[in-house]
Structures are given as C-alpha cells and as structure tokens.
DNA sequence: AAACAGGGCAACCGCTCGCTA
DNA sequence: GTAGCGAGCGGTTGCCCTGTT
C-alpha cells in the first residue's frame, strides 16, 4: 500500500507560478509566517497549490535576501571545495552561501561548474617559477586562517556524530595538513568513508588515471613515495586511514583534465580526517578495501560543523594576515608542497 | 524565416528523516 | 515499538529561451 498523497493532485495547480500566486503566498507568509505547516498553508492562503510546491517556491524564490545571478569566484571555490568534500549535499553547501538556495547551487553545478572542470585542457608538463609562486599564493590564502579546531582557544568542541568526531582533547594530537599539487598535476582523493561518496557524475573519466593506492584500515603510518610513473603519492594516515592523496603526474598517464590548481587541506587525527579541496577540482574514489566503515551509518556525514568552520576560515582568510598555521613538518617535492 | 539542438532553470517526484501519538 | 505524518532533500523532468544551420 502506497503512502497517501500530501495533497489532492487533481485539484492543485501545477507548473510555473503566476505573479498573483507569488503575491498571495508572500503576503500570507509575511503576515502569518509559515505556521510550521506547509500542507495546510495553501488552503489558508487561498492558493490551489500543493504545500510542497509552496514551500519550494518560497524557499527558492520568494524568501527575502535570495541572491540571483552570477556566482562569484569565491562562491565557486566554496561550492567546488564542498562538493569535493561532501558530495552533492546541496543544502549543506547552500548553508555556506548566504542568499543561495540548494536548487540554485545544484543547477549551477550541473550546468556550469561540472563542465568547467571536466572541460579543461591539458596543462604544461612542468610549472614555471611563476606558476609555483601562484600555487604558494593559493595555499597561503586558503589556509592562512588557523583552523578553529586546532586552536587551543577553540571555545566549542566539535559536535557529536555517529562517526565519532575527535574529541576536543584528542584534537591536541591532530595534524593539520595541506597539499598543493603542481600545475601539471591533479589530485585524487580516495575516501574509504561511505559518507564521502564517490561522485559518479563528476570526473568519472578520471578514475583510470587515479593511482592505485589503497588506504589501510589498520593504522598505517604516513608516507610519501614515488611510483613508477614518477607520480608523487602522498599517503597520510594514523590509526585509521581514510584518504590518500595521489598526485597524478605527467606523461602518458596524465590526467586529461589537468587541473590548473588543486589544493587540499584538512585535519587528521587518530580517528578522523576532514578534508577540503579547493579550486582545481577533484575526484573521489570509494575504496573497496576498507571494511572499517562498512557497518556504520552511511547516511551520516562526519564533521559537518568542522567543514563549516573550515569553509568559514577559508572565506575569511582575506581579512586575516595569519600565516600558515602550525605544522610539524614540511616537504617540497617536485612541485608538491606538503604540510603534515 | 523556419527548424532544430542545446543550455539553463524552475518545478516536480519520490525518498528519507525526525517527530509525535 | 511502530505507524502516520510533515518537512526536507537530492535527482530528474520539462519548459522556455537562445544560438545555429
């Protein structure tokens, strides 16, 4: 037996909203609010519309402070970063972009950004000095604001989640990391967490170019190696290895997209790794070799608040002159800057 | 000028989640 | 514990506009 419909579909109007309907809905909500009941609202407002339709119209179009039109570069970055990190969680992404709706962002991604990042030409084999300088500018700008979780004065502990984010105390052992690829390189980011789902639609073609590294679930140590294609493989891990960052190099195995700039940053501690990718575009690959997460709730997303904070720090970096936050070591190999 | 193709976007559909009785 | 309900979300559809042939 199916579920009862939320409204009488035969008696509700569908399709585009007329200015009169818009006015009615806006006027009603201005006067009475939504009343917490969208199903009943259209009747009260004198609209022959489904409650869900009213809700959508209000949220996506009539609500005050809705921003329409061009997305800024900053917004692009945030969208890309979050998409790479959490996937198509448009409502979460929208929450980081005041005035933008999830539907707007979803449409923008599907029509513009996805193409933008899948249609890039190959990039030069080696970055020039100037390009290297640009990379460093990117990494500095994106990370120049200390992650609040890492600050000893951080006033609020991370929220709980089913994925057991690190406790405040445990974060004292966290590592903040950031990696920037060479201009000729791309970043592949492998997630063993079901919460960070592979983006099937995004850059699916690049999978063949991804290095075949596999995180260990048993607490492998950090490492940095070079594979036989001279690609830099950066593997970061502690007790549980969730991500590897493989920097695909040049030559026959070059990734066709050749991201102009790729950057990732995040927090690593014993049980969690929160990752941000920036600007250039990413791919994600769910690993089949790690069973650790298999039994955990796939619908949960770990560390949303952390992501928000990361984004917040990234967005505010222009007004903050802090240098790159503390790090325990640094290496610079072949155009790769690795803080760990 | 007409036909066609493709892109952009608003709106719909169906599902999950969370609350409540 | 569970069934019913509404809210919210993400994927998809379909219409309209614009550019091309």
Please give a handful of descriptors for the protein shown.
Arc Repressor Mutant, subunit A; elongated; transcription regulation; nucleus; 15% strand; Myb_dom; 5-stranded mixed sheet; 340 residues; alpha+beta
Number of strands: 10
Task: Tell me the helix content.
Answer: 25-40%
Low-confidence stretches: 120-304, 317-340
Task: Please summarize the sheet with the most strands.
Answer: 5 strands, antiparallel
Write the element-wise H/E pattern from the N-terminal end onward. Answer: HHHHHHHEEEEEEEEHEE
Q: What order do the strands of the largest sheet run in, or round the barrel if closed?
A: 7-6-1-10-9
Mean pLDDT: 51
Strand content: 5-15%
Please state the oligomeric state of the protein chains shown: single chain
Number of helices: 8
Protein name: Transcription factor RAX2
Region (Disordered): 148-170
GO cellular component, one term: nucleus
Main location: nucleus
What does this structure look like?
It is elongated and about 45 Å long. With 340 residues, it is an alpha+beta fold. The strands form two sheets. A five-stranded antiparallel β-sheet has the order 7-6-1-10-9. The chain has a five-stranded mixed β-sheet with strand order 3-4-5-2-8, with no helix packed on it. The chain has eight helices and ten strands. The longest helix has 17 residues, at 102-118. β6 (263-268) and β7 (273-278) form a beta hairpin. Residues 120-304 and 317-340 have low confidence and may be disordered. The protein folds into two domains: 15-62, Arc Repressor Mutant, subunit A (Orthogonal Bundle); 129-339, no CATH class. It binds a DNA duplex (21 and 21 nucleotides) through residues 3-4, 6, 14-17, 36-39, 50-53, 55-57, 59-61, 88-91, 102-104, 106-108, 110-112, 299.
